[in-house]
Amino acid sequence: MISKDTNVVILTGAGISAESGIRTFRDSNGLWENHRIEEVATPEGWRANPQLVWNFYQQRRRQLLEVEPNQGHEALVRLENYLENFLLVTQNVDDLHERAGSKNLIHMHGELAKLRCESCHHVETLMDEEHLKETFLSCSEGEGRLRPHIVWFNEMPMGMAEIEKALSECDVFIAIGTSGHVYPAANFLHTAKRRGAHTIGINLEPPENVHFFDEFFQGKAGEILPLLVEKWTR
Ligand code: APR
């Protein structure tokens, strides 16, 4: 079903990083590491209590230093290396895909490793010890305060034009480890289907949109993906 010239778009969510030790969002009563999502993942939350939000993301950023890519991330690198047309879109803000070796990658919800100036919007990757403390940091280009380079609820996801174009051209769409609750990502499946793509889901639990997949594999991404990629690239 997949050959070297098959055009493949992949969407990943928190489930692919779960086996690396990063908690998913919707497994704990709407709380994210014991915080309400509105408190730590909205522009209103940031305006109301920037120190709390900053500390929260600094913790998430420090956690990146303790986790490693797993076999799911690695299998996707082998698939990318085999294919001529491949795009990986992730909702994850961790850096495990790129650390595994993924190249053609869009972080549609932003990146923990990066910070952005509130005034001039300059983006920097800042992950040294001195950048991971609770004191706010300033922009290297001016005076502005840095904020997490994260797409909060009510903000515009990144890379949408490129993602929409890839979806409108893909032959196979694969969603991995995502609950299908958050839009616009939850719509990618339907966009791909309208284009006539074959659609595949891989998830621990059947997600919201499970009935729309042509094929669905239930289980851990780190166990299922290596087997599927081995079969597809044989
Ligand atoms: N392998 C595959 N799937 C898994 C695994 C695993 N090892 N562990 C958990 N899952 C599945 C869960 O069953 C769940 O359906 O991964 C899914 C994770 O869902 P969410 O926690 O809702 O994460 P995600 O879909 O990425 O959330 C989307 O919501 O809060 C926002 O911006 C945040 O990017 C995030 C977005």
Q: Any idea what the radius of gyration is? A: 18 Å
- Measured distance between first and last alpha carbons: 11 Å
Q: Would you state the CATH class of the largest domain?
A: Alpha Beta
Count up the domains. Answer: 2
Order of helices and strands: EHEEHHHHEHEEEEHEHEEH
By CATH's scheme, which homologous superfamily of the largest domain applies?
Answer: TPP-binding domain
**From the coordinates shown, what is the CATH architecture of the largest domain?**
3-Layer(aba) Sandwich
Alpha-beta classification: alpha/beta
Hetero compounds: adenosine-5-diphosphoribose
Shape: globular
Within the CATH hierarchy, at the fold level, what is the topology of the largest domain? Rossmann fold
Q: What strand order characterises the main sheet?
A: 5-4-1-9-10-11
Per DSSP, the total helix count is 9
Query: What portion of residues is helical?
Result: 25-40%
Let me know the largest β-sheet: 6 strands, parallel
